[in-house]
Amino acid sequence: MKGIMKIHHLTASIAAVLLSASLFSCSSDDFFGKAETNTDGISFGVSTENGASTRANNSADGYTAARYTLRSDNSADTLCVRAVVTDGIGNDNAGRPATRAAMQKSMYDDFKVVAQYKKADGSINSQLYMNETAKRSGSLWSPNSTYYWPEKGQLRFFAWAPTDATLDESPIYPQENVKMTTLKYTASTDLTKQRDLVAAATGELSNNSTTCAPVNLQFKHICTAVIIKTGETMAEGTIKSVKITNVRNSGTYDMATAAWDLNETKADYTVSPDLATTGATTNGTKLNAEDATFMLLPQTLGADSKLEVKFHDNISGNVRILSASLSGAEWQMGKTVTYRLSITPEYELKFVTEPTLQDAHYVIYPIKIKVDPTLVDKDKKGEVVGGGWTLKSTSPKVTLCKELTELTSLGYWVEEDRGTQTIEGTETGEVTVYAFLEENITDAERDIVLELSPKKYPSATSAKFTITQLCPSWNTDGLGCERFEDGKYPWGFLWDSSMKITYDMRDAGGHGFWGPLRRWIMKIQIKYYGDKYKDYITYTQYWLQLETVTIDFSKVPNLDVADNPDDGNLNTWELYNFNGISDVTGLMTQLEAWGGKPDKHLAQNPAEYAARLCTMKNKFNKELLETDAAGNKTYRPVLKRENLVWYLPAKNEFSMVVDNEHPLTGDYWTSTASEVAHDNENSYKYLYGSGASLQKRTTLLNVRAVRRHS
Question: Which of 91, 412, 414, 438 matches a 20 to 30 Å C-alpha distance to 311?
């Protein structure tokens, strides 16, 4: 589920102008502060800071300040919140009595005002010059009594509103304090008792004008307005309550410096609208009608502050409690924060696979996701008519696909089959997708995020999955190695007569009309291999259909390549392409996938040899072999010479391989075959930290692929 916090753009502060309405005398020789009657004196007019109307302006939303995700402890429901900050405080309730937590868009009908008198000698008089409630009369606010400017000295005015606000302390409460410039306030947890406090202060002023020029007294909103509203998407149910917890609730505001000093006491603030919602609920509906405005103290929320939403879901019949940390959220003085709650029906859409570190070479990474069936819309016949899910990679370095091809299922990282940066699907339940990672040959690991989202709810926050891919462990000469080892493998190319296997293909492809046709297509592909590698591959056919395939690895010619002591890349290339061994080992997997039945299980998998293991960490392309009558295409993997960048190091290269984070230990195969004449049984291994020596090729040893820095 998703909730969005928005803030209406309103004017910053309300100002009052202190005017002298007397057209005759602006000063008096009488005892200061003496009340006069029937005489024009100081009165008050109201305007904005820039002299315009006092009504707040409504305009576009402000800037996004933060995003939060709320989760339930006992359900899959999710609520997402976007925090938006806008200047000013205002509401949609101008004209109604300010008896609740209302955001004032026009000035209050009355306010408290006091004046300090600074005498000519610089001392503050022990008695306030003015201690009054100024009340609206037409376009002016006037005190009950008349006050003149003192002939000497200066006045400093302090004012605040509303007059019915319950203050802990003020310059006139609990007793008059001529030197006090502060207001102490505790924000009530009862919304009906909260107030939109405004306050103003002037500098030290003298009456230097015979025309009684206006004194500018600008009121500022000293709280932060927090509003709760509905968002774009609402599920069918009821918003029972919204709570903001552990908010500092009391402090002292200095009118002279326009700054707060908050106490450490905290409170929770709750609005309980019991608001029924449907998919047709209007975006921006205010919870609890006019009572859903918190007037709270400006602050940066602490680590224990959070937003809690209690929602009854009519679809499941369950009540959800969702919460998210608001730690670090800034509530600035005189600004409005609106939380818009977008709630989607309960569903499950998540990554099942836990992220694991990936190596630096080309990788095919299977990832399981879980998709709730309610996210896919079907008609009465069970046909999909809408909904589904979208999976997106945030970087072109990682692409995605839902299914592997024949070649990628065999482990080949094929450029043409790597998929796209974004995929969509309507599959439900547990679904496996595949991420194709390009090699990371930088000097640092990299993080790439996958985002999984429901198509039915575009405003919902995506589930995220971070792929961390390591970089090679580089040495000072620009040789880098992969970071993980896949196990122990033979060097290969030493097979006896037991390494002969025959596949019975008579039932491959099924029966009926299509079975014979499929076996005829299989025969075409096998003919390619049989003609090219006839030394050790033979096949039989019956009525143009493939019948059997025999592969005898003991008849592979003796190795006469890969004896370079310094060039592991060349050795690996020669081993991979020697007499089609790599093609044929892949063919064995294909024969079994077609339904071929082997006559035995080979004691040693000929596809698992050290050089091929390293070769498979590179990028491949594919070559079309055949297209059948139905348009089905058969491909073979192709490794271009320039794309062989990861390889098995030669015996003299291995001493340069180093990895301090994932250390090498023990014996490792090199790509260098024996240099001894007629020795077709041994190749060079490297004992890490020691040196190279010959070892029988059937021995299982460690393998590490390397590459040169580009």
Answer: 91
Grouping H, G, I as helix, E, B as strand and the rest as coil, residue 128 is coil
- The total number of residues shown for the chain amounts to 710
Strands 335-341 and 224-230: parallel
pLDDT band at 692 (very low <50, low <70, confident <90, very high): very high
Q: What token pair was written down for 415?
A: 């450029």
Q: Is 566 helix (H, G, I), strand (E, B) or coil?
A: coil
Give the β-pairing of 306-313 and 237-248: antiparallel
Residue owning tokens 């299989």: 522
CA atoms within 13 A of residue 644's CA, in its CB half-sphere: 23
Tokens representing residue 389 in the block: 């899910």
- What is the spatial distance between Cα 581 and Cα 536, in angstroms, rounded to a whole number? 10
SS3 593: helix
Residues ≥6 apart with Cβ < 8 Å to 527: 539
Q: How far apart are CA 509 and CA 556, in angstroms?
A: 29
> Worst-scoring range by mean pLDDT, 268-277, 627-636, 638-647?
627-636
- The two beta strands, 250-254 and 182-186, are antiparallel
What does the pLDDT look like over 551-601, one tens digit per residue?
Answer: 998 888 888 899 999 999 999 999 999 988 877 877 887 888 888 999 998
**Residue matched to tokens 């002299």:** 51
Structure tokens given for 681 = 């049984």
Three-state DSSP at 235 gives coil
260 phi-psi bin (left φ>0, alpha ψ -120 to 50, beta other): beta
- Find all residues with CB under 8 Å of 686, minimum gap 6, and list them: 651, 654, 655, 667, 668, 669, 670, 692
Q: Which residue has the tokens 């938006």?
A: 84
Under a CB-based contact definition with an 8 Å cutoff, are residues 244 and 187 in contact?
no
Give every CB contact of residue 17 below 8 A, 6+ residues apart in sequence: 44, 45, 46, 47, 214, 215, 216, 217
DSSP structural state of residue 498: T
**Rounded percentage of the chain residues whose pLDDT exceeds 90:** 51
The alpha-carbon radius of gyration of the chain (Å, integer) is 40
Indicate the DSSP class of residue 37.
S
Q: What string of H, E and C letters represents the secondary structure of 21-60?
A: CCCCCCEECCCCCCCECCCCCEEEEEEECCCCCCCCCCEC
* Residues contacting 681, CB < 8 A, separation 6+: 494, 674, 696, 697
Count H helices and E strands in the chain, helices first: 4, 51
Is the CB of residue 28 less than 8 Å from the CB of residue 35? Answer: no
